[in-house]
Amino acid sequence: MSAANSLASMAKPRWWEAALWLLLLALPWLMPTHALLISEITIIALFAMSLDLVLGYSGIVSLGHAAFFGMGAYTAALFAKHLHPDPLFGLLVAMLVTALLGAVCSLGVLRGSDLTRIMVTLGVALLLQELANKLDWLTGGADGLQGVLMGPVLGRFEFDLFGQTAAWYALGITLLVFVVLRRLVHSPFGYSLQAIRDNRLRAQAIGIPVHARLVAVYTLAAGLAGLAGGLQAQTTGFASLDVFGFDRSADVLLMLVIGGTGWLWGGLIGAVVFKTLHSVISAWTPQYWTFWLGLFLVLLMLVGRERLLRPWTWGRKA
């Protein structure tokens, strides 16, 4: 079998993946009262997948990935409020704007050590948060950008109060991104990223354009994070300063710790587990839910993710 055919076969979805996606797409119909929660988890899962591109596949540490999520949220909200309410057009604009921001930020992020990258990414998020706070005439400041009204998806499907349209909209976009990323990570470009992650000097020695590859993946990841942020603003009709918050970047890192880095299902599984634990534990003990979540993470590290999530990790390398 040739290398091209081998990569193509590895990129094909397994039967259980297709079955799982069909189940996910049916959830808003099977659980209509939880449609808003399904939409929220789906958007966070998309955000986690964007971070996994730079962290799991490329080895770039980031604690400020919420900068792109927040930029996408405000871009989509402002576009809908002042220019055009079409959701898909607004998502495209949000993705392009955040991809451009990611390309600019990559010039500084990709220099120096991991500590330097952490501080630069965190600084970018804090700067954007303060900028959104100061430009209250445009962004609403601390009160947030309110009154964002979206048009129907594809001109036919109106956003409803129960959130079913929002859930299917978010699931459809996330599935599309998942399919594209699956092809990407099993392409020569994707494997070159993993080579850079494992040993940057060796990758450079065999002729891989390391800096160009990292700039490209960082730009793509920023665009996808902006896509997730745009989805949140569109489905909630609101954008506030907390979309830039450090806790959002920290939460998405925890999701990847739970689900695992370097495979696309890690972000999806991590988002489902994290949000489920958050909802259940915070309802049980609102004051100490972070303690129990931390205890779960400690157990996860001691016991091992593969043992706790063994059914999900069978196809990890696939």
Compact description:
This protein has 318 residues and is mainly α. It has helices at 3-11, 15-30, 35-55, 66-82, 87-109, 114-134, 136-139, 164-185, 188-198, 200-205, 210-236, 246-259, 264-284, 289-303, 305-308, 310-313.
Q: With helices defined by DSSP (H or I, 4 residues minimum), what is the helix count?
A: 16
Structural class by secondary-structure content: mainly alpha
Global Rg: 19 Å
The parts where pLDDT drops under 50 for at least 5 residues are 311-318
How many domain modules? 1
* Number of β-strand runs: 0
Topology readout:
Elements: H1 3-11, H2 15-30, H3 35-55, H4 66-82, H5 87-109, H6 114-134, H7 136-139, H8 164-185, H9 188-198, H10 200-205, H11 210-236, H12 246-259, H13 264-284, H14 289-303, H15 305-308, H16 310-313
Helix pairs in contact: 2-8, 3-8, 3-11, 3-12, 3-13, 4-5, 4-6, 4-11, 5-11, 8-11, 9-11, 12-13, 13-14
What does this structure look like?
The protein is mainly α. The protein has one domain (3-313). Helices cover 74% and strands 0% of the residues. The longest helix is centred in the C-terminal third of the chain and has 27 residues, at 210-236. The protein is globular. The model is unreliable at 311-318 (pLDDT under 50).
